[in-house]
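JOB MANIFEST
job_type = single_chain_structure
chain_count = 1
residues = 485
[input]
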Amino acid sequence: MSADIGVIGLAVMGENLVLNMESKGFTVAVYNRTLSKVDNFVAGRGKDKKIVGCHSIEEFVQSLKRPRKCMLMVMAGEVVDIFISKLVPLLEAGDVIIDGGNSHFPDSNRRTKELESKGLLFIGTGVSGGEEGALKGPSIMPGGSRKAWEIVKPIFQAIAAKVEDGSPCCDWVGEDGAGHFVKMVHNGIEYGDMQLICEVYHLLREVLGLSNAEMHDIFAEWNNGELDSYLIEITRDILAKKDEDQPDKEVLDLVLDTAGQKGTGKWTVESALNLGVPVTLIAEAVFARTLSALKEERVEASRILSGPARVPPVQDKRAFVEHLRDALYASKLVSYAQGFILMRAAAAKHGWHLNYGGIALMWRGGCIIRSKFLGKIKEAFDNNDSLSNLLLDPFFKGVIDKAQDGWRQVAAQAVLSGIPIPAISTALAYYDGQRTERLPANLLQAQRDFFGAHTYERVDKPRGEFFHTNWTGHGGTTSSTSYNA
């Protein structure tokens, strides 16, 4: 039996993608370094299905139809390069290697060029949706060798999630590492969304004193409105889940408050710093996870450090719940706006041709950040494909105008209550910074010129002209070069 595509790596995502492909009519070859996994899969979940179990890389390659399509679902980093080195000698010109893991985009940039120089094609693709998405329809974000897209398109779009009109949540993203860059930004936004929801949960619990059951009802209500999303939906369900061994308790209350991470959020922040883009919300979400991991230090500090002596009570709990909804919605918009600005900056640097409306559509279903308002993001870019900031779109401007009073009420109450809300507060600070015509950076630049002769521009001179002042009278006229690192 010859296979339409082959998958190497039978962990959770690999197994479920194989079953998804087979259910759409494709024959799939599979290989795993631990051969027992191959046998167990073929005899178990893959029994009586169009799945070809292979016990060597050679057998795997020989089982594939030309042009061969070899998809790697293995750990990012060195493992990907090891498998590529094993495949290359066995493949022919025009064959395709696909990396479907969470690889860092510079690796995909490099692999695209290296494989194309050998006559092979490469696709680095983000795959989002977790175990359920992989099985039933993920969001797929392919980039790399443009010629490879038409080869893999029928399979990828068949297995991808579909939106209401049947459009697949999968389309060509762009050259080189563009697919993995977009997936990285997706994951960064995911960090931000999760942190925002956690901050709202914290305020509902600590400021309003609500039970898990009461919070469950609130998230259930929100999931029927503009906040309708996968993460709001699962938060609703988490709040209601009882512990099997202690049925009088919810599982959530038994979970230790230390968060883990696998690095894609950090990569997003590093990329933003390198490109000079203020992705402040994702950065705060990453740091919030690192702070949570310092559990022992926080426990010790909680016994020493004091909070506000008097916490003002919330007079109208229902109104404050609405304020929280507004703060969550407005902050989410800021996070997505920052993410799209980052993608635009990366596209300009790397020469990628990204379709921003198409990316919003790819995130509309299947992935972890899928939500109702992503359709509005697509509309915004359909209306203006050169939109510099989503917050300037009429729809999103209207949402912020309506929500900002509640947003500010939440920020004020949290500060006065001593409740940390790093993501919500930085979103508000970014919004206020974005709408401020004159920031105090004039003083900052004067300080830099004072101690380092770094020069400054003047409001009464054309942009691009730089000046230096001898602030002390004995500093001389020599100035440093003007540049931004």
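[summary]
The longest strand covers residues 121-128.
Residues 107 and 268 are 15 Å apart (CA to CA).
exit_status = 0
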